[in-house]
Specification:
By secondary structure, the protein is mostly helical. The chain has 4 helices and 2 strands; from the N terminus they run ββαααα. The protein has one domain. It has a two-stranded antiparallel sheet with strand order 1-2.
Length: 140
C-alpha cells in the first residue's frame, strides 16, 4: 500500500471527535505527493512514527532536564501504546505489518535524521544521536 515514508507526530491530526488521521503534507520539498509514491511496507511508517514519539521524549529531556529514567519510561510507554493501537486497528489485516522490519527502519530513520540535521538544522543532531544510541543499546 502507499505509505508516507517519513511519518512524524506533526502529521497526525485530530479527525472529528473520535479518531486520528494522518496528514499528507511534508516539509521536505523534494518529497513526492502521495499519489506519486510507490507502495511500501507499513513497517516504514510505523517505525517513523515510533521514532517520532522517541524524539518527543528526547526533546522534552533536552528542554526540561529531568530524570532520564522518567523520560525513557515515557518513550517506552508512548511507543508501546502506539504499536498496540496500530496492531489493534489493523485487525484481520495484521499480516500487512512485518514487525521484523521495524528495527531496520528505525535505524534508517535516524540516519535520515542525521542527514537532515547536517544539511538544514545542526542543532537537531543531538536528538537522533540519543535515539540511535537507544536503538543500538549504547549510552544515551
Amino acid at each position: 500500500m502507499r505509505i508516507h515514508g517519513d511519518l512524524h507526530v506533526g502529521q497526525i491530526l485530530r479527525w472529528r471527535e473520535t479518531a486520528w488521521r494522518s496528514g499528507i503534507s511534508t516539509a521536505t520539498p523534494s518529497r513526492r505527493s502521495p499519489s506519486e509514491r510507490p507502495p511500501g511496507p507499513l513497517a516504514r511508517d510505523v517505525a517513523s512514527m515510533a521514532m517520532a514519539l522517541d524524539h518527543v521524549g528526547r526533546i522534552v529531556g533536552r528542554r526540561r532536564p529531568t530524570d532520564d529514567a522518567a523520560i525513557e519510561g515515557w518513550i517506552r510507554a508512548a511507543r508501546s501504546g502506539f504499536l498496540t493501537a496500530y496492531r489493534a486497528a489493523l485487525g484481520e489485516h495484521a499480516r500487512l505489518l512485518d514487525e521484523r522490519l521495524l528495527r531496520p527502519f528505525e535505524v534508517a530513520q535516524e540516519c535520515h535524521e542525521h542527514v537532515y540535521a547536517a544539511r538544514y538544522l545542526p542543532s537537531w543532531a543531538a536528538v537522533p544521536d540519543r535515539a540511535l544510541a537507544a536503538i543500538l543499546g549504547g549510552p544515551t
